[in-house]
Structures are given as C-alpha cells and as structure tokens.
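Supplementary notes (optional reading)

For those who missed the lab, this is the record we used. Protein: Protein inscuteable homolog. Length: 532 residues.
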Amino acid sequence: MMALPGGRHLDSIPLPGQRLHLMQVDSVQRWMEDLKLMTECECMCVLQAKPISLEEDAQSDLILAGGPGPGDPLQLLLKRGWVISTELRRIGQKLAQDRWARVHSMSVRLTCHARSMVSEYSAVSRSSSQEMGQLEKLLMEKCSELSAITERCLQVENEHVLKSMKACVSETLSTLGQHFGQLLELALTREVQALVRKINASDNIYTTESTTGNLFSLTQEGAPLCRIIAKEGGVVALFKVCRQDSFRCLYPQALRTLASICCVEEGVHQLEKVDGVLCLADILTDDSHPEATRAEAAAVVAQVTSPHLPFTQHLGSFLESMEEIVTALIKLCQEASSGEVFLLASAALANITFFDTMACEMLLQLNAIRVLLEACSDKQRVDTPYTRDQIVTILANMSVLEQCASDIIQENGVQLIMGMLSEKPRSGTPAEVAACERVQQKAAVTLARLSRDPEVAREAVRLSCMSRLIELCRSPSERNSSDAVLVACLAALRRLAGVCPEGLQDSDFQQLVQPRLVDSFLLCSNMEESFV
C-alpha cells in the first residue's frame, strides 16, 4: 500500500516498519520517557528469590518496573503488551539455543510482567467480565506452568529426556502466547468500544477532539488495532463527526484517522456501508472547507482506491461519485499551496486511474495533462521524487488513450518525461532511491506508449531520449541496478527505433534492439560498467 512519511497510507510511498510503534516520537525522547520505568532484571530476580544470572547477556535485559500514569488503561495495555510480546519472542530464541538457565529466568520475569499487567489493568479498567477473568486465569496458570517446567529442566542432565521436555516447553510457550494474545485483544477491544461510545455520545468539541486523537494514536499501532476499531464502529463514529457542521474544525483529524483505519479490509467495508464515499465527495467539492480538510479527504480517497489492496477494487459506490471526486482533485492539484497537499491529491488521482479506465478519459477532458505538467515547474508543489512518481503514474495510465499524445506534444510533455528519466535521489535513503527507480521506470513506460504516435517519437529522438535510454540500459549505476527500469527502457528504445532507426549506432542496434528482449536484458543486466 501507499504511505506518506509520517504514517499516511498511500500507494508507492514506503510504509514504516511493521514493528509495534508505541508512540510516534523520536527514539531518544522515547528512551528518556521510559527510563524512569525501567530497571535491570536482577532486581526482579532477587524479589523472586532466584539467583542472579551470570550469563553474558543478562545485563542487556531491561524490564518495566512501573506502569504508565494512573487512569491510562490504553497506554498500560500497549506498554505491557509490548514488553510481554518481546519476552515471549526472546524466550523462544533462548529455547532454540538450549540455554535453559536463561529460559527459566526469563520465564520467571514473564510471569511477573503478566501478573503486573493483570493487576494494573484491573485497577484502572471500567468493569470486569467473566470472559476476561477466565482469560486472566488461563494466562497466569500457563505462566506458572512455564516457570515450573523450565525449573525442572535445569535439573535434568539426560539429553533424550531434555529433548522431550523441550517440546513440552515449546508447546506451553505457544499456548501461553495464544492466551496472552486473546486477553490483550479483548482488553483493547473494550477500550476501543469505550472510545467509540464517547465519540458517539459527545456534543462537546474538546471531548470529541481528545477522543478522536486517542483513536488516531491507536491506528498507528498497526493493522490489528485498525481491525478492532473498524469492527467496533470506529468508522461509523468518525463519519458521524464529519457530517456535523459543529465539528468542522475536527474534520482533518477525523479524516486522518479514517485514512489509517482504511488500510484494512474491515475499514473499507465499513466506509462503504455508511456511504463514506459520498461524504468524501461532499467535502472535496465544498470550497468552503479549508484546503487542509480537503487534502485529508483526498488522503482517504487515495487509501480506499489503492491498487495494492485487493479489497478496494470492489468499492462499487465509488463509481457513482467518481466524476465529482476527480474534478475536485484536479482543482486541488491546481490550487495546492504546498507540496504535501499536491502529493495527497495527485496520489488519489494516480490510484483512481488504476481503479477505473473511465477516470483517464475524465482527466483528459479536464485538461489534467496541462495542470500536472505546469505543476512540475512549480517547486513549491512538486519538489520530491514521491510527487513526481504520482504525476508520471497518471501520465503512464493516460498514455493508453490516443488523444493523450497530442496533448503531451502541445504542453511540451516529452521534455518533462525526458527529465524524469534522469531522476536522482538527493538523500540516498532507500525509500527515495526506490521512488526514483519508479519514476524512471514509469517515464520509460509512458514514452514507449506515447511513441505509437510518430510525432511523439520524432520529438523524443530530437530531445536525445534514445541516448538517455541507451545509457540507462548499459550503465547499471544510472538505474541503480534496477531490472524493472532496464526492461522499461529496452521496450521504449525498441519502440523509438522502430520509428527512427537512424538514431542508433550499429552496436546499439545489434545488442539492444535486434535480439529478443530477454537476450538484451540478460546482456545488460550482466554488463560491467566501463570507467574508461
């Protein structure tokens, strides 16, 4: 799926890693916050009347000595949950290495963490249930069983007996993990239900703002929590906010939260059930809304039309409002006051061109090519390879239409595409390098499609596009050794050579055009660069 730096989910923009993010803050700041809650593991071992571990990695173990502030069950669950999940993973690693002393001491520590989570959550939770009580009991029983069996393993010297006991420990650890996951999910579900009820019942702007902010923070913890929020009515509640004029100032926050929730199938299904697309269309087409609000609505559109999410392709209600949405997005691109606003609007348009072929015809009628190409010369709107990736995606999908070629010529678009073939990263970060590769690949694809028109092909040759394509084919560093860029450039070169063969030297023709595409690909992909 697609995502913007900062956690947005957008196509072709790299997402952050999938580990559990407890807070969206700088790592040093996070360490400073948690420092007061951490203590070395030997303290807990002493409290449990166990010997202090002498193993070399014992000093690296840190545990949570206290919980979050009073009355904050969500942060308590997330922090304790992260610690226990980490402990379970590390016990599995030590078990695989047959390091029984470490397995036992970590099992004791795991029991302490589980007991702390249960007691602390019981102290701050709103109510208890029979199901919760049963899961808590099962979890603690399995923790005690794990501690007992690992302690027995320390006394066993027979390798065959130890091997059979290892399988038993592994099974106990697996069951414990399942009970913990069920308990954590149930507790988080209860907290989400409370937040959703609070949003639905509130007519106070400050209460709604705070609660919506808490919901957004939860969406940043990953897809499992987004599924819980969607199932418990979070999407319905947020669209309720977006339909009340009294909450207009909260629309951006609510829409940002919706974009995060809709990275999962349940979120998109809930959006369709409450006519969410119609609400988004209303916001996008209403000029009385601030640009920031319409930009966040564009982000939701980009998410629910992502071509990388198979479930978004069945969003039937989108077709009914597509023309209004496309028109509003083009206008937003044209009037965007910043690069981020343009990126969100163009990303939504790029995804829509994959979503339905009619969108390309609509864009053509709305003079989208002129709007997009003009924006490319405006550094305030188009200043990153991520944005150029969206623009060239739209051009590549529109280039299947015959009329597109004449519009490209009229707006000097071939020269712009030529420039995209030379896209280079500024920072050298993996995400930016990947974005530059996509820009080069899609620029070559666009050129190949447009070169069906002899006029476009001749203009490309005049601008030395063939020389640049040959350079990309022969020099791995120019394309960052990308096979996708190589294939696209070979295809574009062959299309241009078919119209203007005189633009090629004999060696280039014999190696890059005349052979089968796969043979030229193998030749170029194995080619060593010449620095002479």
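If you only remember one thing from this example: DSSP finds 26 helices and two strands in the chain.
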